[in-house]
Write a structure and sequence with these properties.
mainly beta; 1 helix; globular
């Protein structure tokens, strides 16, 4: 079977799925297809700012943002990359605004999780809302095969390595090693996957 025929079969299956499930739509970038619930919000000014792998799923009421600040002193290369076969559940808040977020392949992102790439500056001579995003620690990297439990928060500057598990309700403030299982506020190492 040729590659083109295989691609047509996969695409036809997706279209059939969408037709049978009208609450979803296909988001296509570079011939890769993601399935996104119509109740999810995707906000970007440049389509190249969002890079989705094949078979990414984004659940209802999730907010996905990859935009740059209009402030002339702000970071201008915000991007969000999500690897193939990654599941993003309902009600998540993923904001690559003022920084970059990279989520690997085969990840499970549960519900009500916040992943924000950057904080605002905190200069006392200006209103917080008028200040540009901080360019320090403005990258979040999540490796492949990572599971993030519901209601967790991933703070700017964090790297979660391949195979890690983040317990529900955790606040991740520092890097997580490969295959580590962490939980708590702030998240602490409990053990490693066996």
């Amino acid at each position: 079977m040729t590659l083109i025929l295989k691609m047509k079969i996969v695409f036809n299956k997706l279209i059939y799925f969408i037709f049978r499930n009208p609450k979803y739509y296909v988001f296509t970038v570079c011939n890769r297809h993601a399935i996104i619930n119509k109740r999810a919000i995707i906000n970007y000014k440049n389509r190249k700012a969002i890079i989705l792998g094949e078979k990414v799923y984004i659940g209802a009421f999730s907010i996905i943002i990859a935009i740059n600040d209009s402030n002339k002193n702000s970071f201008k290369n915000s991007t969000l990359t999500i690897g193939s076969n990654t599941y993003i559940g309902e009600g998540n808040n993923i904001r690559a605004a003022g920084g970059t977020i990279k989520i690997g392949a085969n990840c499970l992102i549960s519900q009500n999780i916040t992943i924000v790439a950057s904080n605002h500056e905190t200069n006392k001579n200006d209103l917080i809302r008028n200040q540009p995003w901080s360019q320090e620690n403005n990258t979040i990297t999540i490796g492949d095969d990572v599971w993030i439990g519901a209601n967790s928060v991933i703070l700017p500057g964090v790297t979660i390595s391949n195979g890690a598990v983040i317990g529900a309700g955790s606040i991740v403030t520092k890097d997580v090693p490969k295959f580590a299982i962490v939980a708590g506020n702030p998240a602490r190492l409990l053990k490693y996957r066996e």
